[in-house]
Amino acid sequence: MLAAAALAAASCSDDSAPAVDEAEKVPPETNTDSGDVSIHRELRSVSDTVEGALTYNPDLAPVGARMLVESVSKSGSTTVHFEIDGFLPNRGYAAHVHTDHCGPTGDGAGPHYQHIVDPAATPDDPSRDPEYANPHNEIWLDLTTDGDGSGETTTQVPFDFTDPVTNTVRAPNSVVVHEQETTLTGSGEAGKAGGRVACLTVPFGS
Known about the structure:
The structure is a single chain. By secondary structure, the protein is an all-beta fold. Strand 5 and strand 6 form a beta hairpin. Helix content is 2%, strand content 28%. The protein has a single domain, classed as Immunoglobulin-like. The protein is built from 1 helix and 12 strands. The strands form 3 sheets. It has a 5-stranded antiparallel sheet. Strands 3-4-12-11-8 form a 5-stranded mixed sheet, with no helix packed on it.
């Protein structure tokens, strides 16, 4: 789980160096040579920063809670693993991969990433068509926490981040956690999950 990853610290050979927090000893982001990514960070208030990992609703996503995302793309498919720690206990959270980096408000992350983009969607009216807004064309990461506020999920989708029209890389940039406990799937509401409570910038496809 997250706590173990966050506390795996490298030894320090310089006894004169100042003490550092255990969580800071682990690089928050690692990109492999193949373009896979692993990133884990603590949520911070938007009053402190507008980058990295942000909470927009500390009642549902407390400051200091952690989010971890690992993504591997291979042979035309992508596997994404998502963990949270320090969120509310025994509660569902809807989560999805979004197109843009996290911003000072939840809207900054843009719409859900879609492999095949809904041609009827606009910036003011994102896709709600279940033909496009579904867990096979988007990346959905809904999960439920345990009694300690930790939860995890893994999903695999049948695409990588190559645009099927232009054959160029078109990668998403964040994971957003929503206030609803599950993602809606019905016609006209597919993909909806309420307000955005937290966001982690993730360099997918790097």
